[in-house]
Every structure is written in C-alpha cells, then in structure tokens.
Amino acid sequence: MDARLAVRARGITKCFGDIVALDNVDLDVAQGQIHGLVGPNGAGKTTLLGLLLGLSAADSGELDILGTTVRRALDAPDGVTGFVDGPGLYPSLTARQNLAALAALRGRGSAAARIDDILAEVGLTDVADDRARGFSLGMRQRLGLAAALLSGPRLLVLDEPANGLDPAGKRHVHGVLTRLAAEGTGVVLSSHRMDDLEELCSEVTILATGRVVFSGPLGKLAAENRELDYRLLTSDPRAALGAAAGTAGIRVVESTVAWRGAEAFVVRALVPALDELVARLARDGVAVRELAPVVSPLEAALLALTEPQDQEAAR
Amino acid sequence: MTATATPTTTPREDTAATRAHPVPLAGGYRFELVKLVSQWRIRLLVLVCWIAPALFVAAVSQQSTLPADTLFGRWMHATGWAGSLVVLGFSGSWALPLLISVVAGDVFAAEDRLGTWRHLLVAVRSPRRIFAAKALAALTLILLLVAGLACSSAGGGLIAVGNRPLVGLDGHLLTPSDAAVKVLLAWVCVLAPTLALAAIGLLGSVALGRSPMGLLLPALVALAMALAQMLPLPVAVRVALPGYAFISWNGLFTGPTQLEPLLISIAAGLVWAVAATAAAYAVFVRRDFTNAAYDGTGRRSVTFGLLPLAGLLAVSVAGVAVATPSTGSGIDQDKVQRSLATAFAHLYRMQTDELNRPAVTEAQLQVSASCDRGGGQGDNEGPGNDWRCVVTWHLPGVQVSGSAVYQLDISANGRYVADGDGPKEVNGYFLVHTRYGDAPNPLWQFDGNVELLSASSKG
C-alpha cells in the first residue's frame, strides 16, 4: 500500500441491480495531485466519486483511501470530504450559518474560527450573511467548496465544481484547488468543462459506460490521440491554403472560415505534420497569427474515446 | 489502465489516515434543530402556538355568545381554565395533526427536496444517528408547540376570566387548584396520541419522501381517526385507535375519574408511537442513498411500515375487546341514566346555591333518571339525538318528588349534551346571579360523558 497515494483503486466494480455502473475500474491519485474524471453522462463518474466519499461500497475490488482500506459504506477515513450531485446547502441558513452549523456538527471549533477566512478564500465575504436561498449556482458551488475546506481535507472529491461559475468564481475555485494541491491534498474532480480540467489537472481518467478508457497525464493523452482539427489564421490565407494542401499528413477540412473578422481555414493533422506546415509557412514568408485546436485536445480525446463505445452500447 | 503522477509538492503526511467516527448524537441533534428553527414557517408556528391561543381564549371569553357546542365552551365565562380545555379539544381534532404534519412530516422529506442526503451522510457518517437526531429534533419542536398551546391558552383564560372553579363533566365543582392540575394532566395525556401522530409523520416523511402525501400523512390519519370516532364502531375499535386519548382526557373531569379508557388510550398511543418510529427506522436504514434508480421505497414501506401497523391495530382491538367488559357501542340505557342522574344532582346543588335556596346534598336529592330512545320503540342503546330522559329527585322535608325532562344528543364517543325540556323553572333558560356575574341556569343545558368501557350495572 503506497502511503503517497490519496486513492488507490483496483478492479472496482459497482452494480445497481442489472446496471453495471463501474466495471473493473483502476485509479491512482497521488497526494498533491489534481485528477480529473471525464466521461459522458452515465459513464460512472458520480458513482466513482460516491465510492471515494464513502457513500457506498464497491461490490468487488480493492479501494485504499489515504492509506486506509475501505470495505464498507461510510467507512472513509478522516480527511475525506467533498460533494456529489451539487453542494448540500440549507437555503434557510446564511452562508456563514451553513458553515457554522457544519463546523459545530463535526465538532471542530478551530474550523468555526476560520469561517471568515474560508469565505474570503472562495470570494463570498460580501454575501456571508445572505441566505443561501438567493445564491446563484456558482455561489452555491463556492459555498459547497468552503464547506469542504472546513475539515482540512486530505482528499477532496468534487462533482462538477465548475458548474455555473463566472470568471471571478472560477478564479477563486482554481486558486483554492491549486493551493490545496500544493499543500499535499489529493483532489479528484469531475467536470464537463474541458478547459477547466486542462488548466487544473495533471492527470485525467476518462470513463465510458463504467470502464476506464484512458488514465494518465494530459500530455500522454495528446500523444495517444488521433488527428485533431486546427484553425489556422495567417497573413496570406490563399498562400497558406496552398502550402497546407501540399504538406504531407495535412488535410484541409474547411478552406474558408470567418474568424474574428478575418479569413481562416481548418486542417486536420497530427502534431508532427502540423509542425512541418508551420515551418513551411515561415519559409514562404507567411505569418501565422493564430493556430489553435477547434476543440480542446481533451474534448477531442473524450469524443474519440467514448463515441465508439456509445455506438457499440447502442447496438 | 492506471497512471500515477509524482506530486509537485511534498505531501504533508505519509501516514495512513484514521477512520472517521460518526458525529455524536448531540451534535447531530443540534444541527437538526438549527435547520428546523431556521425555517420561517417553523418560527411562525412557534409564534402562533405561543400567542394565538391566549388571544383566542381572551377574546371569546369576553363575548356574549360562547362556543357551547365545544366541550367546556359553555363555561368560558365562568373560569379561565375552560378556555384551555376548549383549545385542547380543537387542537386534538385539527391543530396538532396539522402542526405535526408540518414538522414531523417534513423532517426527512426536506432533505429529499433539497438534495442534501449525500452531503449529510458524508458529514454524519451514520444513517442511524441521522435518524435519531432528526426524530429527537422533531419531537423537541412538537413538544415546544404543544407547550405553547397549553401555556398560552391557560394564561389567556386566567388573565381574561380568572382562576375560578371549573364545572366537571358530571356537574361537580373542581376547585381552582384541582382544575389546574387536571387541565395540566389533560394536556400531558394528549402527548401520547401526539407522539403517535408524530411517529406516523416520520414514517410518511421517510417512506414517501418529497411526495405531498408524506407531508399530509399525519393529518390524513388524524382525519380518518376523527371520522372513525363519528361512526358506530364497536367500542374496542374506538378505544384501540392511537388518537383516542384526544377524547378520553374528558374522563379526567368526572368523579370518579374514568381512568380505564384513558390509560388504555394512552398506552395505545405510546405503542403506536414506538411501532411507527421503529417502522420508519427500518425503512430509513435500508434506503440506498447512492442509487439514483432506487425504487424500493414503496415496497419497503408496505413491508416495514403499513403491514406492521395494520397488524398492531388488529392486535390492539383484540386486546381491548378481551380485556374490557364492554361490547357494541358501549352506550346503554343504564349508563346513560346513571351519568345523567349524577350530573343533574351536582348541578341541582349548584343551582340551589346560586339561587340562595336552602343547601342540599346530592345524597339528599336521591336523583334517578329514566331514559329511552325514540319513545321506547327501539333498542335503548347506542349514540343518537333521540334519547329522552325523565329525571326524578326528592327535596328534604318535601313529600312530592320533582321531575324534569331532558333531550339527550349522545355522540358515539360517549359525550352528550343534555337539553332541558321542562319544567321551565327547573331546567328552562333563565339567568342566575353568581359571585362572578349573571350566568345561564346550570340545569338548562349541560355536557356529560358516558364511560364506554365500564360495565352496565344490569350486565
């Protein structure tokens, strides 16, 4: 058992009646790592997060959390906290009262003393004495994160924490998660926002119909991935299009795309072929003003890795 | 497929974490109380229960027309204690079931509505303690509401009318201190059916979740029991119902106290409270909080909820039927005659005192009553408004006996209203001067109570 692992799961299977929610899932999350869980709806993300929180027990497999083997429901060790299916808040209580009630429930007087600091960290100081009833989804998410911070987590499990966050809220949440990871807390979060995951996570696990289809660093995912679509904005679209058509491994998908008031085009290629195209454009004196994937690499990978399974499942 | 990244910072600890223990019950209880009290409707209920009864009793006591169709309502001018009993009667029928619905019927369902079960489980880590904390918090709040109704109504009556003697249901006069004790006891007695309804509320809240039926279950059960009390059911069924103590407290205000139905109904209420709470617990701890497709609630509710309670009702009815001598409606000619004669004797003595006539005792009056139904055409038993009675009495030193006629409207629960039908100077309507002001002739109309479980002297 590796004590540096916040989560070590081997062969986890969980069924609800005839439905197999998780099928032989392996997962490693190191302490201090922010690990993303990605997958289409019904892939088993929430079930897996629920297991990590101790809400239920796996039907089979081994699950070690913070160095402790978990065999039964509600048997997760101290230091595991978070939320699934949205933060559990009581709308008739203010933000501060929600946190104070939770701190009192857990018998943590020191946490109660830190409520103001925690509220400031998630950017809710101004609404600390407002009832949660009137909070937006993003504010509720931040208050849910604040509630999780009360107990000084060593493993933080969050289900869709980025839902409804505005840019300021996103900055607060990212700041908190980054700080926690830097202090050694393992963070496991699910999200449908690939930009957030790419920004935060050092590793991701992609689930499809209860099975792991990829788990590892984002860089490895890009290397393993198929061709991506890239939008190319240059100083001379006509010349650039010609160069792209003449470069091995490059396929022009859309020859003309209006992009920010200029003319761009879209090519499909692997990274090495793209490198070759950029070098050729430079040699030809064509300036590359923007080169970006049409969809993020993670999203593209998700679609590529999960769609076939969806289709297979549909058949 | 697995992968592990080397953390970019040094972990703060490499030691295995300790297992988390469930939150202590006291902490969970405080948490549930905070959540309940933070709801505006709960705060409003507490406020209403502690203020409205006092205002109601004080206002009604000052009016010329009293709620004579409610037990003790006709005495609201005479004593401050009557108002509390009027509120108690109303509470048992309507207020308490509705209050219980709002509190106990929602205490579990609120978590379903808010989607906070998983959050709560992660925080508390024990469904058993969650159940206990919620049940205790709901119980605390319900007791606070009942205490408010009792204190407020008594306080309002005492301030508006005063601490005066109370006329019991057999016409005898209770001293103010006796009245205070008996009013307090009456409120304590209704805690048993209150707890039973609260437990049924917990069961509904657990089993039916956010469905409105879960919230309304205590009120619906109370309504069903109230309807059952109006039907000509066998007395064993009537007494075995968990809500009968909402009626049987009447027996505290007779002499001798009608203890048997009171104790049986309190026991029935408490047994129902325990059984329904146990059923709610059984359903709750078997719930799967992680399975969104969980659909076992309905089947489990029947298995662990409805079937045991239906069985309990059957056993209770059988037990009461075997243990008590009464059969049928429990209302027969002999009981009616005894009850009416006793009440008449006490009230005649009271009338004599108020009219400043020579004092007499109940023993000297030798009151007897002769009653029949529908002019003797049918069986002289059971509830109905066609009972007719002739009361006969003797005055010391007077050869001729007096007689008076009463029409009785007897309810299925044994309560009756006797309406004087002559002669006018005995039981007609006229005002008498009392120490506290003018009041209607006490023999004109009065309330009485037939003890359903007592054996007829003929039988």
What distance lies between the first and last C-alpha atoms of chain B, to the nearest angstrom?
86 Å
Topology-level CATH name of the largest domain in chain A = Rossmann fold
The main pleated sheet of chain A reads as: 6 strands, mixed
Mean pLDDT of chain A: 89
Shape of chain B: elongated
Inertia-based shape of chain A: globular
Overview of the structural elements:
The complex is a heterodimer of chains A (315) and B (459). With 315 residues, chain A is α/β, with parallel strands linked by helices. Chain A has two domains: 5-219, Rossmann fold; 225-298, Alpha-Beta Plaits, CATH 3.30.70.980. Chain A is 37% helix and 30% strand. The longest helix of chain A is centred in the last third of the chain and has 18 residues, at 297-314. The model of chain A has no long low-confidence stretch (mean pLDDT 89). Chain B folds into two domains: 25-323, no CATH class; 333-449. The longest helix of chain B has 34 residues, at 127-160. Chain B is 55% helix and 10% strand. In chain B, helix 12 runs antiparallel to helix 13 (297-323). In chain B, 48% of the residues are buried. By secondary structure, chain B is α+β, with helices and mostly antiparallel strands. The radius of gyration of chain B is 27 Å and the shape is elongated. In chain B, strand 1 and strand 2 form a beta hairpin. Chain B has helices at 25-37, 40-61, 80-103, 109-114, 117-124, 127-160, 176-189, 191-208, 212-230, 235-240, 245-248, 259-285, 297-323, 333-354, 362-365, 424-427, and strands at residues 166-167, 173-174, 368-373, 384-393, 402-410, 415-420, 431-434, 437-440, 445-449. Chain B has a five-stranded antiparallel sheet with strand order 3-4-5-6-9. Chain B contains 16 helices and nine strands. The chains are: A alpha/beta (315), B alpha+beta (459). The interface between A and B is large, with 67 and 52 residues.
Tag the structure with descriptive keywords.
heterodimer; A: Rossmann fold; Alpha-Beta Plaits; 2 domains; six-stranded mixed β-sheet; four-stranded antiparallel β-sheet; 11 helices; 37% helix; 30% strand; B: 459 residues; alpha+beta; five-stranded antiparallel β-sheet; two-stranded antiparallel sheet; 16 helices; elongated
